[in-house]
What does this fold into?
Amino acid sequence: MKSSIRSIVDINQTAGAFQSSIVLRTGDRFIDAKSILGLSMTLYRDQTYRLDIHGPDEEEAKAAMLDVFLKYGLLVEIND
It folds into this structure.
């Protein structure tokens, strides 16, 4: 499934709203979700994504990131 430019922008803007570190893992790559360039090179793959979120507002960030990934039909797992 290919993601749209809108999904990349939404994911980037959602991540940028939080102080927590939000790292997208795909295979052996680690991408800062606040980096629009990194996202644009990563989200065009058909796969399940893994998010590692840590920081002062991580619970809110986890909920928001899950919502935005699901909005675009992207499969995601988030750390506990």
